[in-house]
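P.,

For your records, the input lines for the assembly:
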Amino acid sequence: MEQNYNHQKIEKKWQDKWEKDHVFKVDKNSQKEKKYVLDMFPYPSGAGLHVGHPEGYTATDIYSRYLRMNNYEVIHPMGWDAFGLPAENYAIKIGVHPKKSTAENIVNFTKQIKSLGFSYDWEREINTSDPSYYKWSQWFFLLLYKNNLAYQKKAPVNWCDSCQTVLANEQVVDGKCERCKNEVIKKDLKQWFFKVTEYADELLEGLDKLEWSHALKTMQKNWIGKSEGAEIKFQITNNKFQTNSLPTGQAGKFQIPNSKKIYFATGNKSKLERLKKLFKKIDPQIKIEQVPDYVDVEENGQDAWENSLKKTDPYQGKYDVPVLSMDTAVFFSNEDEVDPLAPKRSCLKGVDEKNLTQEEIAEKALEFYKNIAQKNGGEKEFYYEDFWTILYPNGEHQQIKNRRDYILTDQQAGDLDIYFPMKNLYYSKVSGKRFFENTAEDFFKEFECQANVLKELILPKIINPPTSEEALGIKVFTTRPDTLYGATYMVLAPEHQLVQELKISIENFSEVEKYIETTKKKSDLERTDLNKNKTGVELKGIKAINPVNGKELPVYISDYVLATYGTGAIMCVPAHDQRDFEFAQKFNLSIIDVVQSQRKTKVLIVHGFMATSKDDWFPWLKKELEKLNYEVLVPDLPDTKNPILKDWLKILESLVQDFAEDDIIIGHSMGAFAAQHLAQKIKINKLFLVAPVSEFMVDDQTRTESIKENFTKEQIEILRKFTDYQLNYQNIKSNVEKIYAYFSDDDPYTSDKQQKQLVEKLPGEYRVLKNKGHINISDSRVSVFELPEIISDIEEKIRATEAQGKMINSEEFDGMDSEKAQQKITKKAGGKLTTQYKLRDWLVSRQRYWGAPIPIIHCPKCGAVPVPEKDLPVLLPDDVQDFRPTGQPPLALSKEFNKNVQCPKCGGEAIREHDTMDGFVDNSWYYYRYLDSQNEKEFCAKDLIKKYMPVDTYVGGTEHAVGHLIYSRFFTKVLRDNGYLPADRSLGEGGDFDEPFLKLINQGLIMGTDGQKMSKSLGNVVNPDEVVEEYGADSFRMYEMFMGPLEDSKPWNIDGIKGLRRFLDKNWRYFSDINYGDESNNQVVSILHKTIKKVTEDIENFRFNTAISSLMVCLKILSSLNSPDKTLVDSYLIMLSAFAPHICEEIWQKLGNEGFICRQEWPKYDEKLIVEDKINLPIQINGKLRATLEIEVDISEDDLKKQILGLENVQRFIDGKEIVKFIYIKGKIVNIVTCLSADK
RNA sequence: GCUGAAGUGGCGGAAUUGGUAUACGCGACGGACUUAAAAUCCGUUGGAGGCAACUCUGUGUGGGUUCGAUUCCCACCUUCAGCACCA
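Structure tokens returned:
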């Protein structure tokens, strides 16, 4: 007898036989029902297979073999996900062309996979990097393009400036380039996208009908991230640049004539010169001249807008050239004496100027302004506003204004200018220079705002005056439109388009620009790492108008708002959004509550030693807080003259039982010590310690004297006992949101030292009050009846309340349920209800070599033109020597690829797209290709799709939860919408399928022996080859299945494999000297049928570990027979063959059977044969097992009761007690319930 | 922080309409076979107590429901995974 079997010989033998006989080839003409069982195909890495790969493959193999034996036609293919970055990186690393290294890796992988005896139909093998495959990947690109689902857009990508290249996310480490450690920035590059978002809703809803794990479904749900809310628009105003649409007969479009001439209505030569200079810079082609018949108009309007308009009046209808005019006003804040429209008059108030010379008048004016400066410490900020009007030949007007900022000094520079005395006293805030010091560059800087305004007025050929609907505005998306009245500011994403559009209106644009720059430099990591530390810049000069109440809100940019989500802008409600709250705190913005929680906030006040709730400031505080809508508890604590902490806590703990995270505890003196004890155990919002006694007090030598003076010895002893407990400050810190403590500078018991010790342990808000003693009326020196300081601290908002509730501060909506108010407030704001998704469009461009070229040609005349289908595939050129990323896509370097490229539309010279496609494009449709892998005309024939799709069972890791599995679903939906799926495609028992994978099973990771994820860098990768060599493929397969549930992650531990090998050896020996006979008994038959049932059900549910364990039990039972019945043993062997196919084929053959065991029929079980007639019945008394009894199954309850009560052990436990209940669950258990004692 | 999954012997793990907790395997210990070892076979193996029959205790922690809870409910702790300023 052979002790052990020779696995190396046997396994090779059967693998060859299976291949030679095409045992696993799908029969195309089969009439059997189909099952498509699919593994996620591997990327053939250079490292070869590791023990994690075969876990899923073994599971599907067992399942496939099981299905075949149950008369299904099983499609079970394998192939290679060969394109993509990992393959290319590996090739770069070893210095071999990826085509070559990939081919080698595939050879190695094939060998390894085949050594495990999987039942793949190898004739369907595919390779995504083969032109016959990627031709169809390119075809899919064109399909999407035709459907407007593929488009080009600028997108920010990771860019390393020193390497001159785009980096993949995994190549960016801590915001720095993996290779050169240079800081990585975001760069806008034109990229190709697939519009997955178009199908967002369908991808979400389709999940319901799939048999996927709950975890995976929620992962996809979160990724798609649907949220419902409202889109609301806020109008913008600004004080630096404002267009003033005048009422005209025909509001609409102004046409500027083609003549490039403009008249300027002014008598002031220097203003004209200045304007000429500015126009030269704006547009040299525009000529500006003084209006031919200049008329001096009296500036007697009510405001500068009116004055400016008046100046153009004389020229109404006179010229076919636009006429420009301007009036300037000067603004000093808090200087009421200066009239903005008539500054000269302001200087000469009360002066009789008739007898004065021009010089003297100028001197007076100069004095006047010097005075203003002096009054303000030598310098005073002020600004000019220029109000421009343009009169168009058609008689319509357009107005616009700008603002220039200056600083007035009391230091005169240069000679007195009698026409403009003030000129010598100020310098520009922009250039920092005085008028006569200006260089040409300074001049343009100083007057840039004027230039911008003029540009805005003149340059566009057509000007659209803002109408109420089209006016500039900030659109926001919010899920809480009910809180609109609480919006106190707005934030735009730094990348928001509006920021650039409002450039001329933003006073601090250079600061804004700087912030945008630093944001770009921040890596995603930094942006999220500094989660709580909000940054941002206000857009000065800009305000937004709240549409419901007309309030002006400041506008900021900040990187906590993402450009890619919603509208890239938000309204901020700091009272009810934590992020807004943090930002508002940092920038000192107001916080308005608009939703009130339904629950009153609770406050517990704990009094101190020898005090009561009636004493001191407690009644006052209770009254004040109740006015403010708090629920206040001030318990009287027992034995206040001889308090025991434990007794106090017992009462206090019951009081705070229903305290929530919003509630507050206040403790005074010794009560503060008790309060700290409470805070160790429950989560609360605020903890107030007033003149707190802490564990430090007893040891405070600076207070020994005064304590002795005020307390008797007994009292000090009580105090010591009370505080003799260690506090867990760590717990208090994590339980309490904010801690406040009050000390008094003349407290006889608590000192600075205690305060310092406490603040070290419990950081928070610490205040030292003046002359409040121990903040206690029983203090002999000071009486304290009120403590007003505490109210504002209690009221202080320290975090946003995001819950729904009742509306307040919201005008007519007050009192309404906030959820109901959402729709109504949205309506009032003129917004609309919308839905947003987190899902982004799929970026498919890669500036890399090893991928399918994007089939697009760029023509200078026709733009992006798709390559015609007949020209596919666009071959990946072989003549790229250096395929390392160099900043330019490697395909740009190929001569072959760029030779004779013609535009398919116009035939002109054109350029090929140089980017390749993301590898996920290739593997989004590979399961179709398996069905028709040789087809040269279609990606897959329609009748084969109808016959074999969808995939019935798909097995793979979770790592593809949101990539591959979403994209594949997306591709299938696109195929459906383009008629590529057969019309009457079936889904299980009828109905249409538009989901590729009906059932999905995620195998867990197999980790290294160290419990960490297997990776080359950790050196914990286990290669199956050695294991297979030593123990055999069958042992290996069984062991991987036996390790635990397929879905769990588990560390690899080779020790256990011995048990499985032992089991197979046992089988070998058992069958080596088996003598068939007719022996069988009820017990053995029952066990066998039980095993068939168990194994069948376990395989159906992918619970292979328990299936194997019942096979082990079954063998043990079979071994008890000397000459077993052949059918019994055969049934067992057939089941085992799904798990350990090689050895079972060999045994099958050695036993003289015909054909392959893998082609036998799966055994059936008979429910009747499983039922045993005798069972061991457990007997409990009061729920505890006291005895077992072997009974006939159909024994009557009365008989049973008699038998049980006769049992010795049962007697012992019942012993005179009354039997209250006798519970018998047929065939399962008996429980006897008795009274506790005999007397009752 | 949010979402999801999970916590059971020395280890991998089993046990679901609530009904004998630790199946099966590994390891360990004892024994048989052997000159010896390996292999193989047999036995023991959650903890505490007891000569023993047996008793108490025990499925992350604390409560609850129930005749009976690893399983159901509530609160908490820990671990793993995914997402992460998503308005």
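Two observations worth noting. The CA atoms of residues 209 and 439 of chain A lie 73 Å apart. Residues 1082-1100 of chain A form the longest helix (19 residues).

Regards
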